[in-house]
Structures are given as C-alpha cells and as structure tokens.
Amino acid sequence: MAGTEAKMEPPDMSAILFPLAGVMIMVLAVVIGNAQALFTNTSVQLEIPKANVIEADLEQMIPISIDRNGVYYYKDQKLSDVKEITPKVAAEQKKYAEDAGDPELEGFQMVVIRGDKSIQWGSVLEAIDAVKRAKCKRVVLAVIKKRG
After folding, report:
1. Cα 41 from Cα 38, distance rounded (Å)
2. SS3 assignment, position 111
3. What's the whole-number average pLDDT of the chain?
4. In this structure, are strands 61-66 and 110-115 parallel, antiparallel, or unpaired?
5. Helix (H, G, I), strand (E, B), or coil: what is residue 99?
6. CA atoms of 122 and 137, how far apart (whole Å)
7. 4 found inside a domain
8. Are 86 and 131 in contact, with CB atoms under 8 Å apart?
9. Is this structure's pTM higher than 0.70?
C-alpha cells in the first residue's frame, strides 16, 4: 500500500493546559488566602515598622520577637537574655536540615526578627548577632509594607 500513510494529528494542547491552569489558580488562591496566617505565627503583640519591601517567600521560619520593653521571645517563649537565642536557633537549624534529609541545608531556614517600632535598634542588632552566631544564613527583619 504505497502512498497511503496515516497522518497523526498532534494532541490538542488546550485540553491539557486549561485544567492545569485551573489547578494553579486554586493553589495560588489558597496560598494568598493563608498568607496572613503564615506570617503571624506568634502571639507577641508588636507595632511593626512600615517600609518599602519585597515580600518574603512563604515557608517555614523561626520568629524572634522583641517587644516594646526590649524583652526577647523565641517563637512565643519569653527569654531572659538575648544569649538564649543562639542555641535555640542552632538546634532548630539542625532539625530543619535533618527533617529535609540534607545536611547542607543547615543554616538555611529563615529567621524573621520582629521588633516593636519603639525599641532601640541596638536590641535588633543584638538579636541579629545572636542568630548569626548560630550560623544562620537567612535573617530578615519583619516590616509592614507602606501603602502608596
């Protein structure tokens, strides 16, 4: 049967892409809907300063808070001294790497330092120093995005 070749048409890509786009929109809606809850995982009440910023990735993080009286908190646990931050962050970083099954991830879990806007910046610098002594490579300061 020379000359009679069956021609196959390529599959309709829209039949594949439209359902995938719908799933991606749903995932995006869930992430956006839960973004506030992801970044307020501590009960320490602070007035966070405002700034022009780029929003951080949504991921597991370690919150360090400093209230208006200069008291430090690791997650929701009140600390008696800034020096208590280093061993707690180091242990959390190690656990993060072990849970991921990759020892090279140690030090890459994000630490977010939240300070009341009325505190002295020396307190924030002491917290950053304590976190850096724990060999943490990702330290960020929490601020509220300015409008306009």
Report:
1. 6
2. strand
3. 81
4. parallel
5. helix
6. 20
7. no
8. yes
9. no
